[in-house]
Amino acid sequence: MQSCESSGDSADDPLSRGLRRRGQPRVVVIGAGLAGLAAAKALLEQGFTNVTVLEASSRIGGRVQSVKLGHATFELGATWIHGSHGNPIYHLAEANGLLEETTDGERSVGRISLYSKNGVACYLTNHGRRIPKDVVEEFSDLYNEVYNLTQEFFRHGKPVNAESQNSVGVFTREEVRNRIRDDPDEPEATKRLKLAMIQQYLKVESCESSSHSMDEVSLSAFGEWTEIPGAHHIIPSGFMRVVELLAEGIPAHVIQLGKPVRCVHWDQASACPWGPEIEPRGEGDHNHDAGEGSQGGEEPPGERQDEEEQWPVVVECEDCEVIPADHVIVTVSLGVLKRQHASFFQPGLPTEKVVAIHRLGIGTTDKIFLEFEEPFWGPECNSLQFVWEDEAESRTLTYPPELWYRKICGFDVLYPPERYGHVLSGWICGEEALVMEKCDDEAVAEICTEMLRQFTGNPNIPKPRRILRSAWGSNPYFRGSYSYTQVGSSGADVEKLAKPLPYTESSKTAQGSSSKQLPGHLLSSKCPEQSLEPNRGSIKPMQVLFSGEATHRKYYSTTHGALLSGQREAARLIEMYQDLFQQGT
């Protein structure tokens, strides 16, 4: 594609011509998660009035999903605010009183995998034995020491040796294993317990990274993920309150729910003028609230003022509606991009962006909430961690489908009980999580109960009175929980994924022809096919922008990464049109 430098004093560049034709650019945001809502809110606050958010599902929030059962709120998706110093999620929650009921136990300054820092983690073996506390502490210190080493490869440019296969899992497993075996004073029985604990810790790590296995996580890139300083926090009233705060500043008519997108047709700079058969959506659209469109004979803001106006992007929805736009901000998950990018964008994405999509990783981390009439665990216990003694020599975290439950690393105790009742939260990730998602509630509850009986050695544990679980992997609108840097990928791939289209440096990086015609069912009667050949001099910049947690190089996998990425893409458009809004047009 040819370079398209916008210039405020050029009367011939496409941006200037577009601004003369209409005062407001039309922006479509695909997805009403944190990234999409943050982008829409930022644009609206800066004077953009022609913004539409298309959400495929029946709710806003994306991978934030708080479910209220009785008096308690359970998080099927995002749970913690990770860090407080400069974290926009934290500041939004704090400023609006969402953390007033957060207990001291729900604030943790360390690496977090528990609901409460109070109490102790009970490490149990499949033979019904509790691993002594001193053994757990010794192993934990050793594991954390090796974990810190995994950060050095990126942060200090430390070379990765061939034996590690550039894998966090392989490096960690072998390093910890060698140190345990080389200890001359350790009894063999204790060594075997610690060797078995390696797999349990790596399962927890895999759940936190949302990878199938830490073997798939890049060692050389692992340290680039950046932790925000300060404590981690839980929001007692539900993480959805943050989503609702973002949505409060967005007019109701802007967000359309139940509106899945089939395809984004971009680079249509000289495609057809839209005829009356395919009417662009504006604030006066019949789906909007009455009275918010035009008044009297005035044309609604953002509507076409030139019958021959040409739109660079057309969003085709599953319900066959087409929405022309100047810019589209795509916030769909990396999992959706992996599955659908070839059909979701026409023309196809540039080769380097496709390669980045394939290189980067996204997995499934699911929660299994079990509610009991009474607790069978002690008041000092904050979690039940499952250690399979027969995995002391194992070098894999993959199980056959019928043994999917072996991937459950343990159950955390939800705290305080006055808020949640007597509830355990189990964690499972990877391909085994997808198998779990296919099982019915009864089967999952039965298997989890049997595991709890086996590991505690208590055959009298009753079945839970209620079960609630997530299913992020099989949800067609997510196809996973969050992203990670897979072996073979790096932060550079995150940057490539985030890069807006069309590229300004060259047209040769795009797959397929940029002059690809719109499908016949999208053509209006005023748009003969011969008019679709693009005029290369009229390419409009930043037609398709990308946001979402997977596009943030330092904060991928987090809610603050998602929010910041949405604000980042909005800022690109705000800067692009700053002259327009400064003139008060």
TrEMBL record:
Signal peptide: none annotated. Residues 504-517 have a biased composition (Polar residues). Transmembrane segments: none annotated. Residues 274-310, 504-539 are annotated as: Disordered. GO terms for cellular component: cytosol; nuclear membrane; nucleoplasm. Residues 34-267, 313-574 form the Amine oxidase domain. Pfam families: Amino_oxidase. GO terms for molecular function: polyamine oxidase activity. SUPFAM superfamilies: FAD-linked reductases, C-terminal domain, FAD/NAD(P)-binding domain. GO terms for biological process: spermine catabolic process. Its cofactor is FAD. Keywords: FAD, Flavoprotein. Residues 278-291 have a biased composition (Basic and acidic residues). This is Spermine oxidase.
